[in-house]
Fold these 2 entries.
Entry 1:
Amino acid sequence: MISLHSLALPTAILIVVAITSSLRRRRTLPSPPNPPCIPFLGNYLSLPVRQPWTTYAEWSKTLHSDVVSIWVFGRLSIVVNTKEAAKELLERRSAKYSDRPFPIMTEMMGWAWATSLMPYTNAWRVRRRILHKTFHAAAALTYRPHQRAEVHKMLKRVYGDPQHFAYHVRSMAASIAMTIAYGVMEPHESDKILDIAETSVTMFSNAVFPGAAVVNALPFLRHLPAWFPGMGFKPYAQKCSELAMDMRDLPWEFFKKGLTDDASGFSMASQLSSKVEKHHSKEDREQAMKDACAVTYAAGADTTVSVLSTSILALLLHPGVQYRAQQEIEGVVGRQRLPTFEDRDSLPYVEAVYREILRWKPVTPLSVSRSVLEDDVYEGKFIPKGTEVFPNVWAMLHNPTEYPDPEAFSPSASYNPMAKDEKGEDIIVNPEYTDGVISHPLPFRCGFTPRDEQAEILLSRLGEADYEGLLLLT
Ligand code: HEM
């Protein structure tokens, strides 16, 4: 959260805001319940900084309401904490709940081009169509050979350099997303762009949750000079904006200069060049393509890093689960090859592990917020047009009624001996996670060793045309 507690705005401004907000709130029905508010600031001072999704889930319990309100300087956000409420509001009433809030910081931080953040406009529809063409179910299958090749490359690197497994996982995720979007890029360039993207995503994350930046609630603040007390958000937004622009523009420039390797015309950028709607001007067309490619990279790389890091962490912490998954793979696949996408249906336990990983530590715990297009009433509570809506995915996936021990990682109740490091000593890992839109485990140690002689033989053949091998996380 950007600290703006030093904000020393004249009391007069606050009074104007308070009057405006009370006029806005004048209506007959109450809004969904909220934690105690104080005048002018609303819930601003009690907003959580660490893992906000857990606090919102607590508020939902304490207030006995699936949907809770958060007021910050007269601006209302609601958090939807149960699947039932999410289905009703976000699915059945999707026509009213599918806009995007577009807080002022999104624009100031240079993220206005990202489809997932754009309001429901024609520009959004053009980009959405492009993304649909690239990612509809059948199109997604065409990326499999490339994904598989990248996974093999990553395994080979982890085998040769297990200490830096996190780096290799990150490079693989970046390479998959980057290649889908632009074609194969030099690993060095791809890493550089991933650095930029990660920093920009983190900065963006820190400024979009309720109350994170007061300018979202009081847009006129952007017009005050940078030297004015509490204007720290301005240089912050400027820095983020530069990064977001680089993230969008640099890889596109690479593609245009022919510096990406895409001889088969496989990448989204190549495919799109000839396909985007004819009636748009060349500039519009190029802008839309550029945006769609960049959002693919921004949305695909960091999310994959997060989920793979959690997968490794979960298997490290639960060797029993790892063992059982390995047994299942061995029973179905044997020892002569690695599993493929085609084996998925025959591996129910591995499927359960994968789903449990996504449930245990959801990658986007508060998803991507939406905005209400017109006034609505839910269970007798008034939700005005323009309200920002946060689906609390974490709360839905940690609901004790559905998951009796929600914090436990339990695709099964198998035994859980302690993981060991290379010296045979217990590895103590306390899983801790970052707080942003995309939540990651903090760095942790993990060893990778071939599990037996057979695996060692297979791994030693890495680099041959079709190497085989399985790694054991210890
Ligand atoms: C576990 C991994 C992933 C998670 C949890 C995830 C989650 C999300 C979420 C929550 C959104 C916003 C949905 C919305 O409210 O509209 C989104 C959008 C998007 N994701 Fe993913 N994602 C993942 C992986 C990927 C990958 C691998 C790619 C592509 C390489 C990708 C491409 C996109 C794109 C292009 C959008 C924007 C779609 C639009 O705005 O129309 N995602 N993702």
Entry 2:
Amino acid sequence: MKQLETAIRKRANRRSFLKNSLAASAATVGVGLMSSGLSALGADHDGGITEGDASILRFLAAAEILETDLWQQYTELTGQDAPDSGYKTGLLQLDGDMPQYISDNTDDEMSHELFINAYLKSKGAKPVDLEPFRTLLGSQVTDIPGVASKKRLTNLMELTVDTSWWTRYRSDTQNPDLGDTFPNAVPTLAGGMFPAIPRNNAELEIGNTTVPVDKHVQAIANTAGFHFAFIEQGGTSLYAAMAQKTSNLEVLRIVLSIGGTEIMHFQTWHDKAGNAVPLTDGALVFPDLTAAATPPVGESLQSNLIMPEPTVFLSKKFPVCSIIRPTAAKGIAMGAVKALKADGLFRGQTPDFFEFLTDLAEEADEARREI
Ligand SMILES: [Fe+2]
Ligand SMILES: [Fe+2]
């Protein structure tokens, strides 16, 4: 009996040692150690996960559902299987592989949404369902069957796209986590309401593959190009911030592994946005971001500087470091909701929708690392 007690105590000690040391080193030591430690740690909280971890995952599931909804709209209109159109030709000016990338980004978001909800369920936690809020009318194009009749969660037709991520990732002296703010690469896009998808057949131009594309249609495609990167840089920061609040190593693994693909998406879209065709369409002006020497672009904003510039991180006393920015965890979920709202993505949504999303965000922001 005594032997058994000693064995149990030893195991418990070893378990708590493992728990503490692995959790503390998870962020720096890397994947190999983390995966080997999972079996020792995954059974915490009676096989479930902490309330904080469930809240984090629920907010991320909601974000993924919203991402899936918007990416599906882009895919229907300009993905791999979408027919030729002026809009699609406009996006092809940013890169010949745009339809493939758009379809694949959509698949990724769908997989994130389904995985996180399935994982929550497997732990006895409540998954997220936004279907009651699927009430918005989307594009009314009828030249692509099925598009006009679908109800949406997000609105891609009145966007106010923040393009300050462009300058933020090029700064070598500033960091939003230290309170710095950044100018827009396309100021007019951040100061009005513009469609990123064709609202009707006239803006779609079915069958048109002639280059140059009509200026207004190209402007819609350019707007989409910048919006893609806006969305995915948001995901990049969101996951990096949320990871710091997780308690269970397996949940951390999920957040890091999905977050990594958001980074891949952002990097791709960052590269493509720089190819947006320079033009003026009414109030909307796209500068030539490839013209490094020409104001208002300037050398530091040139389009091929897509690797993150090393900048101040944590404190100005340290050497500059090439990093994702921002990554501060405090208030990150509400920050994400506010950014998406300011983006115009939820124009037309109901008060109930905002209440539901705000509740999820507040719960995620209250989550704390428990080790
Ligand atoms: Fe995602
Ligand atoms: Fe994403």
